[in-house]
Amino acid sequence: MATLAKLLSRSDFLESQYYFRNRHTMTSPATPGPHQPHQDLTSHTSTSPATPGPHQPHQDLTSHTMTSPATPGPHQPHQDLTSHTRTSPATPAPHQPHQHLTSHSAVDSVRKFENDAAVAIQSWFRGCQVRAYIRHLNRVVTIIQKWWRSYLGRKYYQLIVEAAYYTMKMNLYNEMAVRIQRRWRGFRIRKYCFNYYYLKEYLRAVSETNDAIREALEEFAEMKEREERKILLELEEKQKDYQARKTHYLLSTKQISGVYNSPFREHPDPWEVRLQKAKPLEHRKGSAMKSKTAHSLSSWLACTSARSFPRSASLPPIDRKRCQGPFRDINEVLEQRYKPLEPTLRVSEPIDHLHVAREAFKQEERMRNVQDKMFLPFSSYHKKETYIPMIHTLSTYDSPSYGQKYFRCQDPKKWISDKDFQTVLPSFELFSKYGKLYSKAGQIV
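RESULT FIELD:
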């Protein structure tokens, strides 16, 4: 608006200046000539009416002049009436070409100024239109963004509500599942694991089974004891018989009484009766037969002598004859005889292997145990936690009784038997000898 006002005020000022400059040019009537086609009447002069000539087709009548009637003379094409002089009627001079150029330059300047003013007005008006349209677009876009963002907010809020509902539902389900598991586990523990009547019946059955096993073991022990006593008696009888046969020469005769049949005794010694029942030992053969037998044995087996050691030669002599009969090879027999000592299972294994295994298991558990806490985001987070004391700090500072003290009575006066309870069982000789003898009876083909 300010630009438009400036342009309009400038155009009015120029027009007024132009009018006041040319208002004093008052011409009298004149008759133009026959050769005056471009008579300029754009000046602000007051002239009398005139009749144009025959050769004046482009007479300019756009000026604001007041002319009196005049007849132009011949040969007057460019009559200039822009002067500020008041002239009397006269005949213009012929051949004036600069009059038409001056009038056209003034018209062109006014036209250019008006064109610039029109362009400025159009640019300002179109700018106002564009700015108004941009403001309209901004308002419309703001409304669209408002509705779109409200739609996105509702969608996001619906997702949050669904997640919260799902979380609440899962928490409720978990709590109900925990309650069901708690009831079921309590019922199961009370009925099957810690059932008093069931345990009482089980202990009664175990005690009856133990009593039966103890009776069977006692009977078996008595039977073994009887067998051992019988074997000992048989061995004693054999030894006595052998001693009686060996000392058969002490038997009394009819002429001379023996050692066991002393006349100073009331009853004879029982050995006298045993000597009478026993037979004397047979006499051994001579030394010649003994040397012959020893020579014959040493000829086929060199390891039967008293100083028999494995010889350096890996092969037997060529002149040695093979023994007749189901005998094993000499090398195999020597290998079995001079094989290195092999400790039994009881000797090869450590006596505290159970303690060693427990220590190894504890060390492995300590290695695999993760005792570190998870990462805490703040240094003051631990202040909210309650202190949980360890088991070692709760108990008294002394050596634990488990594994160090025995739960059996250690007073020898209160023992039922004379011996203490043995925690180490004897080894089985059959297991230690398995697969180490040259007999192939236990091998699987």
